[in-house]
Design brief:
The protein starts with 18 loop residues before the first helix and ends in a 5-residue tail after the last strand. The longest helix is centred in the middle third of the chain and has 20 residues. Strands 1-2-3-5-4 form a 5-stranded antiparallel sheet, with helices on one face. Strand 11 and strand 12 form a beta hairpin. With about 325 residues, the protein is an alpha+beta fold. The protein is globular and about 55 Å long. Bound molecules: the ligand CN1CCN(c2ccc(C(=O)Nc3n[nH]c4c3C=[N+](C(=O)[C@H](O)c3ccccc3)C4)cc2)CC1. The ligand CN1CCN(c2ccc(C(=O)Nc3n[nH]c4c3C=[N+](C(=O)[C@H](O)c3ccccc3)C4)cc2)CC1 binds next to strand 1, strand 3, strand 5 and strand 6.
């Protein structure tokens, strides 16, 4: 396949597999089965299109899919990174992980086919939930907890499979829909981590890192374990309960590294309960071994959700209705 014939880069992988073998690992989809319809998302991660995939499991109706286009002029390095990630991703199967369907390659473009998530990313969704004055927002505390439980379950699966995401953040989670049956899923496994993305920071000339989502041992010593993702998940809890605020408001990445290394932490979001706050606080324990694992986190969130009947409560102006009467 000419696209991969570039010097170095991916061709350094292909001698390991003759392409028939890699087809067993990653589903290589013929380009003529794909119809690209329209762009649905655009960010530094590249462009994502809505498209249709024909002949899936001998179905008559084509399957709606998300198509992520890797620019053909991307570096050889990112091409080979992409393939390594694709091989890993194609092994992950979980209701809270965005399904990786396969790739499509031709002489000048590389398509990533992924499960279509029509609700957009989690951060944008919770920001849209802030009310603009008149009507109470459309989500309750119960709904917010549901979103966090979905993400925690996805992280628990990654933990069980010894997969470290390294970039757990609300911006990297997607929603199946915006409506009441929404399901949150983890996406964007670093395949297209792009240096131009705003939340990343070049630390003394090294790779770009999302400092505000990272524990001290990661941004100081470059140590990444599943407990790195636990810290990031604590930040996701804070992002969800502040309805999409940027962590450490007003602080630069450098200031955050100093602040956190000295024990500084994010404050409790207004309409977040004390027990939810102590859970996110535990995710930010200095020593990784003192942080909970994702099994504990999921169980704890489910308990919190059960402990008080929150379904009646709506969030008004970023506060729970309890704060109003
Ligand atoms: C009024 N609203 C405006 C926003 N709108 C959207 C905005 C964006 C999307 C979207 O990108 N959906 C995706 N489905 N599957 C994948 C997607 C992205 N993927 C990726 O892999 C992307 O890299 C990615 C990953 C995580 C987060 C964002 C982007 C895989 C859908 C609806 C709904 C209606």
């Amino acid at each position: 396949t000419p696209f991969l014939s570039g010097s170095g880069g991916v061709s350094s992988i292909s001698p390991l597999y003759d392409w028939s073998q890699i087809n067993d690992i990653i589903h290589i989809i013929p380009r003529n089965k794909i119809t690209v319809k329209r762009m649905i998302g655009k960010g530094a991660f590249g462009e994502v299109y809505y498209g249709l995939l024909a002949d899936v499991a001998r179905q008559q109706t084509p399957l709606p899919v998300a198509i992520k286009m890797l620019p053909s002029l991307c570096s050889e390095q990112s091409k080979s990174e992409f393939f390594v990630e694709a091989v890993l991703l194609s092994k992950l199967r979980h209701p809270n992980i965005v399904k990786f369907l396969g790739i499509s390659v031709d002489e000048n473009s590389l398509y990533l086919l992924l499960e279509l998530m029509e609700g957009g990313d989690l951060k944008s969704f919770v920001r849209e939930c802030r009310i603009n004055g008149e009507v109470p927002s459309k989500v309750s505390i119960y709904d917010l907890l549901n979103l966090c439980i979905d993400v925690a379950k996805g992280c628990e699966y990654l933990e069980q499979n010894r997969f470290i995401h390294r970039d757990i953040a609300a911006r990297n989670c997607l929603l199946s829909e915006k409506g009441p049956n929404r399901v949150a899923k983890i996406a964007d496994f670093g395949m297209t981590k792009n240096v131009f993305r705003t939340n990343y920071y070049r630390k003394n000339g090294k790779a770009m890192v999302p400092v505000k989502w990272m524990p001290p041992e990661a941004f100081h010593d470059g140590v990444f374990t599943t407990k790195t993702d636990v810290w990031g998940f604590g930040i996701v809890l804070w992002e969800v309960f502040t309805l999409g605020r940027i962590p450490y408001p007003g602080k630069s990445n450098n200031e955050v590294m100093t602040f956190v290394a000295k024990g500084g932490r994010l404050d409790k979001p207004d309409q977040c309960s004390q027990e939810t706050y102590s859970l996110m606080f535990e995710c930010w324990m200095d020593k990784p071994e003192d942080r909970p694992n994702f099994r504990n986190i999921t169980e704890e969130l489910i308990q919190i959700q059960k402990s008080s009947d929150l379904s009646q409560e709506t969030i008004i102006n970023g506060k729970s209705s309890r704060d109003y009467n």
